[in-house]
Specification:
This protein is an alpha/beta fold. The chain has two domains: 251 residues, 3-Layer(aba) Sandwich (Aspartate Aminotransferase, domain 2); 132 residues, Aspartate Aminotransferase, domain 1 (Alpha-Beta Complex). The protein has 13 helices and twelve strands. A seven-stranded mixed sheet has the order 1-7-6-5-4-2-3, with helices on both faces. Strands 8-9-12-11-10 form a five-stranded mixed sheet. The longest helix has 20 residues. The protein is globular and about 75 Å long. The N and C termini lie far apart (51 Å). The chain binds pyridoxal-5'-phosphate. The site of pyridoxal-5'-phosphate (PLP) has 16 residues, from helix 3 and helix 4.
Amino acid sequence: MSDEHGFSTRAIHAGQEADALTGAVVTPIYQVSTYKQDGIGGFRSGYEYSRSANPTRTALEECIAALEGGSRGFAFASGLAGQDTVARALLVPGDHVVVPNDAYGGTYRYFNKVARPQGIEHSIADMGDLEAVRAAIRPGQTKMVWVETPTNPLLGIADIEAIAGIAHEAGAVLVVDNTFATAYLQSPIALGADIVTHSTTKYSGGHSDVVGGAVVTRADITVPGMADAEDRIAFHQNSIGGVAGPFDSWLTLRGLKTLAVRMERHCDNAEKVVEFLKGHDGVSQVLYPGLPEHANHDVAARQMKRFGGMVSFRMRRGEDAAVKACAAVRLWTLGESLGGVESLIEHPGRMTHASVAGTELEVPGDLIRLSVGIEDVDDLIADLREALDIHG
Ligand SMILES: *Cc1c(COP(=O)(O)O)cnc(C)c1O
């Protein structure tokens, strides 16, 4: 599949030639662990054992690499399994990482409670502030800058191109977690990122029916000494073994085929929900990169196609009102995760971000996060209005 094809053409076809044996139009679920060899070492198409490679996973890995404009894709059992593999492949004890001050809670927990005891140090920085990123770099020791944009749950925006410059000048790789924007709305590699990570559990899978992760590398990693990053990630993927299984790979591939149409609808609906929230008395602030008053709206407008389906807002009457509003909705589902076709509501302080309470990443108690789904938006707004009219 050529890079010149459009996004949806790549999503539907990249890595997904009709099955060589039967002509099956959809990549089959190769639910198999091992492969017959034609004589010792005579692998058919390179397949030997499914931790090392499996055809359904290969299709997904090629597809996600094509969507991100990268050179190689790697699929994992979860987003965090992919992140762990990247960290182990590229960092050694004594190295230092710059981590966003409102990173996904699990990412922060990983650097704080898993990597740090193993000798990988980190500093927290506001990635929306380039001076803060520069100040967090430790010359000679910082080997990785980790960016998430938009962030979860505060919808902060980081300038990928500018941070790539800062990271590369310091001799560090830039990793961008592209889970919220997806490959459809934002292309970090084109903006200078060396590695893209995803929780495919979210928009990429898109149907709340699979947990998975992906990592994509750029062809010519721009950091001296990191030229073998791709091989190191491949080696660690196989050596650690946190790979995506065949059925999970198939579900994620199926989700990716409709990513563009789903994202357009998520964005349409989110914009209308934002408009409603802006006009409601019970809401003190709406956080959405598409709003002109968002601190980094201009950066978001430059690097994203549209502004995504995640919306957060703060309740004027505080935490109690936020908790009650989350319980009062009927169509919106109270739940963690995001990016599925169905709309979800949650209270980050007590749910997704409870693990960062008491740390620098603590989120305000009056905050509500919405993952705006692709239902009929009038129904979504009517349900929200009812809950906010009572508790706002
Ligand atoms: C969910 C999420 C992750 C972790 O992914 P899992 O699939 O749950 O392991 C990482 N980053 C972001 C932004 C996420 O939303």
